[in-house]
Write a structure and sequence with these properties.
By secondary structure, this protein is α+β, with helices and mostly antiparallel strands. The protein folds into 2 domains: 40 residues; 45 residues, no CATH class. The chain is built from 4 helices and 5 strands; from the N terminus they run ααβββββαα. The longest helix is centred in the N-terminal third of the chain and has 20 residues. The radius of gyration is 20 Å and the shape is elongated.
C-alpha cells in the first residue's frame, strides 16, 4: 500500500476530501520527524511508539578497499508496535474491544 492508496482509503471511509486527508497525513509525518529529530519519543496508545535509538561507535570494513573504517555513534529512528497492534496483525482481524478500553477514552 502506498501513501496515495492510504489517503484514498481514509477519504472514502471518513467522507473527508482527499486533499484534507493528505494535508493531515503530511503534518503527522512532519511532526513525528520533528519530534524524533529533537530527541523526543512519540507514543501513540494502541498503535505503537516512534523512538530514537543510539547506535554505538564501531569499526566497519570498506569491502572494495579492504580497509577498516570507524563508524561514529549515531541515532536512528525506530518503531515499536503496541501489543494491540501486534495481536491485530497476528489474528488478521480487528480485535474486540473490552469494557476497559471504552472507559479509558481516546488518549493520545
Amino acid at each position: 500500500m502506498r501513501k496515495a492508496d492510504l489517503v484514498s482509503m481514509i477519504s472514502e471511509k471518513s467522507g473527508v476530501p482527499k486533499v484534507d486527508v493528505l494535508v493531515s497525513l503530511e503534518m503527522f509525518f512532519k511532526e513525528v520527524k520533528h519530534a524524533l529529530a529533537s530527541g523526543e519519543n512519540v507514543y501513540i496508545r494502541g498503535f505503537g511508539s516512534f523512538v530514537v535509538k543510539k547506535r554505538a561507535r564501531k569499526i566497519g570494513r570498506h569491502i572494495k578497499k579492504n580497509v577498516a573504517i570507524e563508524i561514529p555513534e549515531h541515532f536512528i529512528p525506530s518503531f515499536k508496535p503496541a501489543k494491540v497492534f501486534v495481536d491485530h496483525v497476528k489474528l488478521g482481524k480487528e480485535p474486540e474491544q473490552s469494557d476497559e478500553d471504552d472507559e479509558e477514552g481516546d488518549e493520545i
